[in-house]
């Protein structure tokens, strides 16, 4: 984690300077971008370990930047924004942000959150902890959670439902056929493809009950997919 490169995307030079100072005190490297286009250019050329991303920035807003970053890969992103409404936070998490910090913030807290996300996503740890928006699956602990409030809501999933959720989280936006889900998640079973519909329906119901509504959708005539943005 030491010397990790952090991209600070912030159009207020004073806030950018403060964040740089606090991050560098923790031996993290910092590059700054004042607008969305510059942020995406730096992401492409420098491949930062994490991005601190304001939403209301020029040229491309934070939502557009996050959507493009998620199309490119899984770089951790923490929103830092004055948009404090619950719907704003929910939108950011649904789009795939790893955390959401509301201004005015304590810069020391931002650094603590950066370090926490870096620990969670460093090395092979990220493969053991899959997350899209507020939905998270810990493969080691075999626990799935919806993180919208504190404490997070733990999902009471069957083994089949957990495997299907992991499959969705590992391939966000990809349409998975029933046969593909059956082969990947129920290899020891002789169940028919229509059994997948029942498992997915139960999984969707549990996600909805935990507040993560609308993430698993049916693609008519093909199968299912997880909406990551």
Write a brief caption for the model.
The chain has helices spanning 13-25, 36-46, 62-72, 86-94, 107-121, 125-128, 159-170, 178-185, 194-209, and strands at residues 5-9, 29-33, 50-53, 77-81, 99-102, 129-132, 135-138, 143-146, 153-154, 176-177, 216-219, 223-226.
Sheet with the most strands, sense and barrel status: 5 strands, parallel
Q: Biggest sheet, strands in spatial order? A: 2-1-3-4-5
Q: What is the CA-CA span between the terminal residues?
A: 28 Å
Multimeric status of the protein: single chain
CATH architecture of the largest domain: 3-Layer(aba) Sandwich
Overall geometric form: elongated
**H/I helix tally:** 9
Domain count: the total is 2
CATH topology of the largest domain: Rossmann fold
- Main CATH class of the largest domain: Alpha Beta
